[in-house]
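Hi V.,

You were right to ask for the full record rather than a summary. Here it is.
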Amino acid sequence: MATGRRLWTALSEPGSWTPRRPRPVGALLGLGGGLLVTGGGVLTDLLHNASSPYLLSLGVPLAVVLLGLPLLLGVSRKRHLAGLLLLVVFLLVMVPYGFRSAVLDLRGEHVRATVTEVRQGRDGRTGGATYACEVLDERGRSSWLRGSERCGREARPGDRYEILRDPEDLVGASTSDPLISFPVLVAYVCGALLLMAVIGAQAMDRQPARRTPRGMSRNRPGDPD
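Predicted structure:
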């Protein structure tokens, strides 16, 4: 119960929670938030054959990070908040595309494929139309294409073109050559996670007002009177 009350206070009154070791705790919170977003991005690729509503559920961890992390850290400095948001957006864009690109760069193979089905959906974030194409390659293996320039409003069953696919279907196929390799992906993601840990440590590095012998609060040096 005591832990729950402290957590509720931290979320309802940003900046009120100061742990005994603020820098390590802040670093862990920043790193944990980054890892949560990274894991969600990897799952998006691994579950590329899942239905769209199920994939949209992966936005729950992102919402937790975007809403909970600033509250727990008590981010009041604009540069800290802006830095965290930029890094979250970077991971959100880099990880799903980068992981698929890295896997296809490592073991992808070019094959000819024929479109067998085109599904139109709606993006829950923007409201725009989305398209998914099921293709059958020359070896009789089916794959789904999403977010491809070849799978759009003009796509029709019977269309034929070359795709790049993973033989084990770990990630979705693509119609373009990969641009990101595993070393590049690891370097970028580790750099972003490290920066999130640093920003988290700096944001949490706050100390409560000290008390004078008479019990009166005393401002820290540099604080306004």
